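Risk register update: the risk of archive-format incompatibility is retired. Evidence:
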Amino acid sequence: MGRALLTSIVVFLLLAGERSAAEEKKQISVNVENRAVAADINIHYTGRYCLECHVKQPTVGGDPLLQYNGDFKSLCRCHGNMQDTYHHPTDILPPQINSIKIPTEFPLWKGKIDCITCHDVARQCRVNEFKEVFLRGAPYPRPTAFCYQCHDQQAYARFDPHQQIDASGVIVESKCLYCHEEKPDVQHAKFKDLKLLADLEILCRRCHFITGNHSGNFNHMTKPSPKGLARLKRMRKKFKIILPLTIEGKMTCVTCHNPHQKGVIPEERPSAKGADSHYRHRLPERICIECHEM
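Archived output:
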């Protein structure tokens, strides 16, 4: 599972070829544009659009003079938190676990892992250089080799975040922190109380790299119609289950699938249903039939 996990995280990262020492010494271009940029313009790899991210043109090695007070969600707003462009949590403290060690050449931003930790953003300001993802230390022989700069390869080879209870029946808190900022109160927490590391669909797709429409050749990551919402409400009441939606009211992976191992959530709670079922369906064998009134 571990190899598939890390391959899925970086499947979108097409690593560029060799670069010479001379190219490493190139300076940031001084041909700076200060005008409105159309939405279809790629501001990278030209050295012309410094002021899209900087208050004024920075100097190499100096203060970056970033816009938006250095908030990378705003600076990298074109990429968004979408599953096809975002495969790693950002704006998070480095996990305090032995299997993760961040190299000194992978800088934190304000003490946290952020976009510039993995991406050498300044390199995209150099004309025609490294026109892919400007990963730190690239090129790499394999996509996963980049992930193993921080993540211990052996630890990930045997890591399954869904095995959340140890041999003595105790919840393994480090497994919770794979998706949650902190271990939830399994006795009382409701879905709205959860503090997640990222969008739920993104968190799931780090391991479950599913292409195309899912499932039944239909994209379920949408807002249900009023009729669909009424059906979900009836199902919740009839079967005493939860079918959680996102804050935006959209369906997501955990609407249908229970990500927790049986025993993590007390059995009497609706959120415990389906934990031991095939595919972890919240309503085993009937979820499609009931939801679509087939």
